[in-house]
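From the shared-data thread, chain only:
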Amino acid sequence: MDLHLDGKIALVTGSSKGIGAGIARALAREGAVVMVHGRDRQVAASVVSQIVQDGGTAYVVTGDITDEAEVDSLLAEVRGIGNIDILVNNAGGSGGNSDWSSTEAGAWASTYDANVLAAMRMAKAVLPQMRHAGWGRIINISSLAALMPPAGNPDYSAAKAAMLAMSASMAKAVAAEGVTVNAVSPGTIRSEKLERKFREVAQQRGVASEAPWEEVEAEVLPLFAEVPIGRVGTLEEIADAVVFLASPRSSYITGSNLRLDGGMLPTI
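Structure, as tokens:
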């Protein structure tokens, strides 16, 4: 299926590694011109180099998107290439491990800023041009934790839930102007961090350190999450969903939250 993304300019925040890098690579494979963003230019450049080697087009942009001045500078750098057609708000994360006996207001404020306010700053900056052009795509990366919050890291779950409400409100505001806004909520996804943790636990349970991933996954996943599909998701599966939402093919989908959780949330 041709997703008609040739020449579209896409900015993916936090795309120097992990889910963001996977999204950037997938957009480039579909012909988009991708702005790979991170705080470390050298790390982001390695993603750009891989995209270019694979025949795509990508550029590095850097900046702290919790800082208004750096956001302005970042966007000025992007606009040197062209106007942003697709914005993927992927940057975020949690300030660290906490629970209800240790969590503090300062951590909540920091996590909210890194997730919700960072996405709001970026969206507010690109929306005027998208509305003027009559076309645009904004995809906000939330988390299944927004819908199934665990006992730990309450600041993260609350911030990701706020991103869902923000996405729905924004979608309503611009729906008649050719701009769609959607959220994606990944569940348990294979990443370098997750694989390290799984292998650590697997070794504690007698699985060899060099065991195939499938053996590690089968041993450890049931300890972490009840996933009906029986495996963790992949970066490619997240990226494919985001690329579809970024394309003209998804023009009648807005204000939605797409869960990629292997059936973990027991509802439709």
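The chain has a mean pLDDT of 95.
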